[in-house]
């Protein structure tokens, strides 16, 4: 059973007790206006706390409810209910979610099966905290991927450098400088859940609905517990043989923070495929986008073209070759996913048109036999 429903083991601030109001979960006037038609139909607003197969744990004004979700299920995982969604709930002896409100933002990655379908990880988020462990070797490409995912969601990214107490002090400044260079325009906070370093700063820069993103072993659940002020989420040690973390978080779950706002913890992301994240990549690689404006050719590929400002920056040391290679790789991946998605939608429209045509032909044949 979700910790959201376990008031005996968690404080009321993090368990979503019956005394919690919808405003504490992020409900505001804009959502209220969007819900007007549902309210007139006798439905009540609810925020999805956790998703299971065919069922959801939701928060309502009168307390937590377990509700069926088959009516809002979709064959496309992006449009299926996910943690953070606001929904219209039909109450009674058999509570059911009957509609989802339009999302303001969503973390969407490519499906784990590498298909053209994406997967929504969390919805209606305001702050996306990307957790990076200072106790592990830095992986610039992974950080750039996660930041692109965060920027493209519509939320505000924040980098949390975790496990400061386990980091090598002699190289801490260099690592922090390198991370800052990977994240232009992003607040970076050095934290330690063990000592409490940086937790007040992280709490100050994260607002509204906050989602934690990062690979297994980055310390997300430990950091979440520190922010929640209680051991709400299970944590596990990193494996010594390969430095990888165990998936101690297996569900995405929404919890109330004691100082206001809500937190969504997510399972570790080992596969971080980008799903049409061009806007996010523009933010992550803002310096390349800016340099490209100075290239002689508008469609410059930043290779052997004459008077290329990007290549000039590489030659002068202003930009690294690795950074450009990463930008190209992620842009190709994002474009490929976008084209696959477009092709799938076109195929879907074609199948629908064929079905309509077959139905019309059958109708005509039926009429001809009747004449």
From TrEMBL:
<dbReference type="InterPro" id="IPR010914">
    <property type="entry name" value="RsgA_GTPase_dom"/>
</dbReference>
<dbReference type="InterPro" id="IPR004881">
    <property type="entry name" value="Ribosome_biogen_GTPase_RsgA"/>
</dbReference>
<feature type="binding site">
    <location>
        <position position="295"/>
    </location>
    <ligand>
        <name>Zn(2+)</name>
    </ligand>
</feature>
<feature type="binding site">
    <location>
        <begin position="162"/>
        <end position="165"/>
    </location>
    <ligand>
        <name>GTP</name>
    </ligand>
</feature>
<comment type="subunit">
    <text>Monomer. Associates with 30S ribosomal subunit, binds 16S rRNA.</text>
</comment>
<dbReference type="GO" id="GO:0005525">
    <property type="term" value="F:GTP binding"/>
</dbReference>
<keyword id="KW-0378">Hydrolase</keyword>
<feature type="binding site">
    <location>
        <position position="300"/>
    </location>
    <ligand>
        <name>Zn(2+)</name>
    </ligand>
</feature>
<keyword id="KW-0547">Nucleotide-binding</keyword>
<dbReference type="GO" id="GO:0019843">
    <property type="term" value="F:rRNA binding"/>
</dbReference>
<dbReference type="GO" id="GO:0042274">
    <property type="term" value="P:ribosomal small subunit biogenesis"/>
</dbReference>
<keyword id="KW-0342">GTP-binding</keyword>
<protein>
    <recommendedName>
        <fullName>Small ribosomal subunit biogenesis GTPase RsgA</fullName>
        <ecNumber>3.6.1.-</ecNumber>
    </recommendedName>
</protein>
<keyword id="KW-0862">Zinc</keyword>
<keyword id="KW-0690">Ribosome biogenesis</keyword>
<feature type="domain" description="EngC GTPase">
    <location>
        <begin position="123"/>
        <end position="270"/>
    </location>
</feature>
<keyword id="KW-0699">rRNA-binding</keyword>
<feature type="domain" description="CP-type G">
    <location>
        <begin position="115"/>
        <end position="272"/>
    </location>
</feature>
<keyword id="KW-0694">RNA-binding</keyword>
<feature type="binding site">
    <location>
        <begin position="214"/>
        <end position="222"/>
    </location>
    <ligand>
        <name>GTP</name>
    </ligand>
</feature>
<feature type="binding site">
    <location>
        <position position="308"/>
    </location>
    <ligand>
        <name>Zn(2+)</name>
    </ligand>
</feature>
<feature type="binding site">
    <location>
        <position position="302"/>
    </location>
    <ligand>
        <name>Zn(2+)</name>
    </ligand>
</feature>
<comment type="function">
    <text>One of several proteins that assist in the late maturation steps of the functional core of the 30S ribosomal subunit. Helps release RbfA from mature subunits. May play a role in the assembly of ribosomal proteins into the subunit. Circularly permuted GTPase that catalyzes slow GTP hydrolysis, GTPase activity is stimulated by the 30S ribosomal subunit.</text>
</comment>
<keyword id="KW-0479">Metal-binding</keyword>
<dbReference type="GO" id="GO:0046872">
    <property type="term" value="F:metal ion binding"/>
</dbReference>
<keyword id="KW-0963">Cytoplasm</keyword>
<dbReference type="InterPro" id="IPR027417">
    <property type="entry name" value="P-loop_NTPase"/>
</dbReference>
<dbReference type="Pfam" id="PF03193">
    <property type="entry name" value="RsgA_GTPase"/>
</dbReference>
<dbReference type="GO" id="GO:0005737">
    <property type="term" value="C:cytoplasm"/>
</dbReference>
<comment type="similarity">
    <text>Belongs to the TRAFAC class YlqF/YawG GTPase family. RsgA subfamily.</text>
</comment>
<dbReference type="InterPro" id="IPR030378">
    <property type="entry name" value="G_CP_dom"/>
</dbReference>
<dbReference type="GO" id="GO:0003924">
    <property type="term" value="F:GTPase activity"/>
</dbReference>
């Amino acid at each position: 059973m979700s910790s959201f429903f376990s008031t005996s083991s968690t404080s009321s601030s993090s368990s979503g007790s019956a005394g919690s109001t919808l405003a504490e979960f992020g409900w505001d006037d804009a959502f209220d206006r969007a819900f007007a038609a549902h309210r007139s139909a006798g439905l009540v607003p609810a925020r999805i706390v956790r998703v299971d197969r065919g069922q959801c744990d939701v928060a309502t004004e009168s307390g937590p409810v377990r509700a069926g979700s088959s009516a809002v299920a979709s064959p496309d995982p992006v449009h299926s209910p996910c943690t953070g969604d606001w929904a219209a709930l039909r109450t009674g002896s058999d509570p059911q979610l009957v509609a989802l409100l339009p999302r303001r933002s969503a973390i969407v990655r490519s499906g784990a099966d590498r298909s053209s379908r994406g997967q929504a990880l969390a919805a209606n988020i305001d702050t996306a905290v990307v957790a990076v462990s200072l106790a592990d070797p830095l992986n610039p490409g992974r950080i750039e991927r996660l930041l692109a995912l965060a920027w493209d969601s519509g939320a505000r990214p924040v980098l949390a450098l975790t496990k400061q107490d386990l980091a090598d002090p002699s190289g801490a400044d260099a690592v922090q400088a390198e991370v800052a260079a990977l994240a232009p325009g992003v607040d970076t906070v050095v934290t330690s859940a063990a000592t409490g370093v940086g937790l007040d700063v992280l709490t100050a820069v994260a607002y509204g609905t906050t989602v934690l993103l990062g690979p297994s072993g980055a310390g997300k659940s430990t950091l979440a517990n520190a922010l929640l002020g209680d051991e709400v989420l299970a944590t596990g040690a990193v494996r010594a043989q390969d430095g990888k973390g165990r998936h101690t978080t297996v569900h995405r779950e929404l919890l109330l923070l004691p100082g206001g706002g809500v937190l969504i913890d997510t399972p570790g992301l080992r596969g971080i495929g980008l799903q049409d994240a061009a806007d996010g990549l523009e933010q992550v690689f803002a310096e390349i986008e800016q340099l490209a404006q100075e290239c002689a050719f508008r469609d410059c590929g930043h290779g052997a073209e004459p008077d290329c400002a990007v290549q000039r920056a590489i030659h002068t040391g202003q930009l690294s070759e690795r950074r450009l290679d990463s930008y190209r790789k992620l842009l190709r991946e994002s474009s490929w996913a976008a084209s696959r998605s477009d092709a799938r939608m076109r195929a879907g429209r074609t199948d629908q048109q064929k079905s309509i045509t077959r139905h019309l032909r059958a109708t005509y044949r039926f009429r001809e036999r009747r004449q």
